């Protein structure tokens, strides 16, 4: 799943059109646009609004899988020309001084920069950094739902010491984002590949659902079953999670005992060399 | 080698920081207040980060040189360990670092002089008693030498202090700087090995057994004291033949009479680390087997542990005297 968080409708428009996010809903103060594998929420300006929108979007993901998060928007910068795109390597909340450091695990030409989130528009650009009003709120929340490597912040410089914020119109904003759609595509592709890897490591083996529906497992037993299913998937990757002896089992405890005994009988430690798949 | 360097503000101007930065002119430099801001946040994935770790340059404030757990050592009474670096260039699947740290970035503490001051204090307290300092537990001692110049800096300290012994534990073949120096009698370079079959499955990015053996032979010829570490011993069906082959390969080429020490210990991990590692590598065969939990430690069932230790000890004693064999019986 890919989650996009943007502050302004003008930032959202090119993305909605490009990714064909046709399913539109309103949730409280927020507008949400979706397709099967992607959602976009318009938060409105400010870090609190961004945090709230991010939390709302996170609440929609009930699969438990690691999702990609990308905050896309415009930002000011002291020295960079307008139209330059930047990926944040450090996000600092100006009010609290707290910083986050999104790890970058992919090859892209997009330059990186420090990003400072301010509570009011910044026109002096004191530091050699990008300035926005949302990223710290977004990152603090999104980082609670996905691993940091999948949570990124992409900004396009819209104003600087030469061109003040007064020059940034809705049309200009949409134009800046439209010019970066190819770059955003590449970034999302790289992040989605990482997320896919992460999620594939934790995919349940075939047959787990059958067991879960046939017997009642308490929460504690569900954890035990998940652990046995993990071992099963490694030790017997080609066989669905099922044993003939399970047919006669009256309850979940009997099922767990039977599976445990079977797996323990296979081998301690690293299994036989011939059966070990390459890591 | 590194795309991003995180640099603590406090040591941005340190000469060692400047030298290291100069080696990576194209790397993005990101300033931070404390390395923990980058290294410690909970929501990080060690396995993903291992694909492209960054380097964090930092200052180590406290706890630079620590006592080893009781009973640990190579015959000495005063045993300490220290880590000038956190995390390892290699990617061994059995390694506890995966379960201990949330981030796979490398942290290099550049204030080497402070480590030496702490060692000096401990040596003064020990008076005429020898002290052992162990390096290579939270990192590989040699692997990042071209960047860290760790040995280049520390070994002259030990060459002037005969009562200060150091063990440099490694799987690396970065021995150039050692070969340029005169051997120092109180320095032991200890190489870790597992059989070829285990190496292939579990020791990713590690130099081949042959290359490590070549490095040992060069060092032995040059007069350096060497150690062999078979820790962890990893179980596989037919482990006896695998370990017998490994021992034969090593001892047929190394001069076993010149070996300083040999140690061994079966695979074990603190339970909390094991849980973290399984979360990261649910698909890893090593973690799909049967383990015992005892006193907060995950290990092979006791009977298997004893069998493996007894077998490997027996085999090793065909090549070396008992006086240089140090079985590791610690919980961790």
List key phrases describing it:
heterodimer, A: 279 residues, alpha/beta, Rossmann fold, five-stranded mixed beta barrel, 8 helices, 10 strands, 35% helix, elongated, B: 332 residues, pyruvate-formate lyase- activating enzyme, eight-stranded mixed β-sheet, five-stranded mixed β-sheet, 13 helices, 18 strands, 34% helix, globular
The top-level CATH class of the largest domain in chain A is Alpha Beta
Report how far the terminal alpha carbons of chain B are from each other. Answer: 32 Å
Give the DSSP E fraction of chain B (strand runs of 2 or more residues). 15-25%
Query: Radius of gyration of chain A in whole Å, from Cα?
Result: 24 Å
Q: What is the compact description of this entry?
A:
The complex is a heterodimer of chains A (279) and B (332). Chain A is α/β, with parallel strands linked by helices and 279 residues long. Chain A is built from eight helices and ten strands.
Describe this structure in words.
The complex is a heterodimer of chains A (279) and B (332). Chain A is 35% helix and 22% strand. Chain A has 279 residues and is α/β, with parallel strands linked by helices. Chain A has 2 domains: 2-201, 3-Layer(aba) Sandwich (Rossmann fold), CATH 3.40.50; 208-275, no CATH class. Chain A has a 5-stranded mixed barrel with strand order 5-9-8-6-10. In chain A, strand 3 and strand 4 form a beta hairpin. Chain A is elongated and about 75 Å long. With 332 residues, chain B is of the alpha/beta class. Chain B contains 13 helices and 18 strands. An 8-stranded mixed beta sheet of chain B has the order 4-5-9-10-11-13-14-18. Chain B has a 5-stranded mixed beta sheet with strand order 2-1-3-8-6. In chain B, strands 15-17-16 form a 3-stranded antiparallel beta sheet. In chain B, helix 11 (239-251) runs parallel beside helix 13 (302-316). The longest helix of chain B is centred in the middle third of the chain and has 15 residues, at 112-126. Chain B is globular and about 55 Å long. The chains are: A alpha/beta (279), B alpha/beta (332). The interface between A and B is large, with 42 and 49 residues.
């Amino acid at each position: 799943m890919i989650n996009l968080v943007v502050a302004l409708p003008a930032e959202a428009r090119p993305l909605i059109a490009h990714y064909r996010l046709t399913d539109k809903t309103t949730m409280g103060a927020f507008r949400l646009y979706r397709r099967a594998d992607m959602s976009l929420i318009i938060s409105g300006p400010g870090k609190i609004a961004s945090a709230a929108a991010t939390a709302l979007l996170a609440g929609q993901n009930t699969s438990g899988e690691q999702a990609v998060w990308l905050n896309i928007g415009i930002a000011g910068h002291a020295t960079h020309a307008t139209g330059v795109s930047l990926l944040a390597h450090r996000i600092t909340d100006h009010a609290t001084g707290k910083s986050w450091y999104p790890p970058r695990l992919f090859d892209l030409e997009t330059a990186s920069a420090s990003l400072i989130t301010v509570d009011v528009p910044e026109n002096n650009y004191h530091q050699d950094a990008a300035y926005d009003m949302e990223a710290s709120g977004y990152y603090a929340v999104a980082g609670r739902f996905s691993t940091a490597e999948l949570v990124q912040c992409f900004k396009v410089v819209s104003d600087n010491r030469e061109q003040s914020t007064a020059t940034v119109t809705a049309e200009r904003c949409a134009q800046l984002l439209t010019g970066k759609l190819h770059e955003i595509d590449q970034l999302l592709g790289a992040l989605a590949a990482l997320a896919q890897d992460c999620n594939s490591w934790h995919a349940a083996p075939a047959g787990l659902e059958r067991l879960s529906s046939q017997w009642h497992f308490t929460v504690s037993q569900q954890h035990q079953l998940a652990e046995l299913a993990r071992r099963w998937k490694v030790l017997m990757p080609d066989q669905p999670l099922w044993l003939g002896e399970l047919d006669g089992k009256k309850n979940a405890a009997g099922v767990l005992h039977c599976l445990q005994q079977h797996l323990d009988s296979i081998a301690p430690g690293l299994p036989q060399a011939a059966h070990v798949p390459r890591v | 080698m590194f795309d991003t360097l995180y640099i603590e503000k406090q040591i941005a101007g340190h000469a060692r920081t400047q030298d290291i930065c100069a080696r990576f002119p194209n790397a993005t430099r990101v300033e931070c207040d404390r390395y923990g801001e980058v290294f410690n946040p909970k929501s990080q994935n060690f396995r993903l980060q291992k694909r492209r770790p960054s380097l964090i340059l930092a200052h180590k404030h406290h706890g630079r040189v620590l006592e080893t757990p009781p009973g640990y050592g190579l015959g000495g009474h005063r045993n300490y360990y220290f880590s000038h670096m956190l995390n390892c260039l290699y990617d061994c699947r059995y390694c506890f670092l995966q379960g201990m740290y949330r981030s796979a970035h490398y942290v290099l503490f550049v204030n080497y002089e402070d480590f030496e001051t702490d060692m000096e204090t401990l040596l003064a307290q020990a008076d005429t008693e020898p002290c052992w300092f162990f390096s290579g537990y939270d990192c590989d001692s040699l692997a990042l030498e071209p960047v860290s110049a760790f040995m280049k800096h520390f070994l002259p300290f030990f060459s002037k202090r005969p009562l200060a012994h150091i063990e440099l534990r490694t799987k690396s073949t970065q021995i150039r700087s050692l070969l340029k120096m005169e051997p120092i009698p109180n320095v032991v370079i200890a190489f870790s090995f597992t059989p070829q079959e285990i190496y292939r499955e579990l020791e990713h990015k590690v130099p081949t057994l042959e290359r490590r053996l070549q490095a040992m032979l060069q060092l032995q010829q040059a007069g350096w004291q060497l150690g062999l570490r078979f820790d962890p011993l990893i179980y596989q069906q037919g482990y006896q033949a695998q370990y017998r082959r490994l021992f034969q390969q090593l001892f047929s080429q190394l001069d076993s009479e010149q070996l300083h020490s040999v140690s061994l210990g079966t695979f074990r991990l603190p339970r909390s680390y094991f849980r973290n590692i399984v979360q990261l590598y649910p698909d890893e065969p090593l973690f799909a087997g049967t383990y015992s939990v005892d006193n907060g430690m995950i290990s092979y069932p006791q009977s298997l542990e004893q069998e493996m230790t007894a077998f490997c000890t027996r085999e090793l004693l065909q090549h070396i005297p008992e006086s240089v064999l140090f079985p590791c019986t610690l919980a961790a």
